[in-house]
Amino acid sequence: MLFRTIAIAATALMLAGCGNSMSRRMPIQMNPAPTAPVASEQLAPPPGMAQQPGESAAISNPAPQPSAQQPSSVATTGAPPAKEDLLGQWTIADSTSSCQLNVSLTGWSGGYRASTRNCTSEELKKIGAWNIEGSNVVLKDQAGQPLAALARTGERRFDGSLAIGGAVAILR
Description:
The protein is built from 3 helices and 8 strands, in the order H-H-E-E-E-H-E-E-E-E-E. By secondary structure, the chain is α+β, with helices and mostly antiparallel strands. The protein has a domain of 89 residues: Lipocalin, CATH 2.40.128. The protein has an 8-stranded antiparallel beta barrel with strand order 1-2-3-4-5-6-7-8. The termini are far apart.
């Protein structure tokens, strides 16, 4: 009888450790997508060229604005990442959810193969490729179109923005 009571108590104690609180994921802290202020001013004439009297120094063709389809570049910390720094499994998160991102060096449209797993975000489900462009990691769809641009913000973290707007991060 005593053995049975001890066995039941030990089983109950072991099962108490299997509670739901142990399997909950901590939410990922998202850094806001960086935005640069925009300023406008008159430009001086190029060196060696004098401005003619009555001539305006205004620019006749303004610089093109980034397309809504292109993710904006983000501020970086340190040198551009090496391809080998990105290989393997990451957690990727946007403002609505997080899931797994797998990165390899298998050649693919516009770069190398990438895939996501268990994503609820429709935008993150589209990821099929990646590449390093300048100092940014660019995530692309199956056709090689940019979906997001991220920059290193920590040893094991990249933050950036989605082409459709909103913050995105990958971390280990």
